[in-house]
Amino acid sequence: MGTGTGSLALDACKVVAPDAQIVGLDFSPAMLEHARAQTSKLGYDGRVAYVLAHARTTPIRSDSFDAVMSAFVLRNVGDLQEFFHESYRVLKPGGRMVSLDMYSPPRSLFSGLYWLYFGKLMPLIGSTLSRDPTAYRYLSESVRSFVAPTTVAATIASTGFVETQTVPYLRGAICLHLAAKPL
């Protein structure tokens, strides 16, 4: 869900069974075009199919997939309840959902240093190098305004998922959400 440039789909090609079919879904035609080019370049044409669709309303049949993955997508989804409901719908019973995203770390010395770098220095360096002052500001602003990982976990559980788990990394600045659709 939210495959973007296809990086996560291509990483999946390396670790799942060789006969597994991977579907990357995104609402951006430009991102999908880039993903298709990368997929072809790496020789995975027959393994990955890309679909133009919004992750909140996919054209995918119910109970179709063994797993649903997303990385750094949740902050860009307008309605998390719809997103996780759709993830749940397309999963087969027993299927797994995995989502990785960035969060504001809890207040501490680390969070102060984190925001100095991520909120001030990175946007300054990024805008200087890319000559686009808005691109890197958006990233830090989207993280700062995003809900807490506990809210995301509660939303995941409210859509019917079980075995929900949140694994924090980098002192909570990044969290991995894991869940399963009941059998």
Written account of the structure:
It is a single chain. With 183 residues, this protein is α/β, with parallel strands linked by helices. The chain is 43% helix and 24% strand. The protein has helices at residues 7-15, 29-41, 80-90, 109-130, 133-145, 149-158, and strands at 22-26, 48-52, 65-71, 91-102, 162-169, 174-180. It has a 4-stranded mixed beta sheet. The chain has a two-stranded parallel sheet with strand order 1-2. Helix 3 (80-90) crosses helix 6 (149-158) and helix 4 runs antiparallel to helix 5. The two termini are 22 Å apart. The model has no long low-confidence stretch (mean pLDDT 92).
Essential attributes:
globular, 6 helices, alpha/beta, 6 strands, 4-stranded mixed sheet, 183 residues, two-stranded parallel ribbon
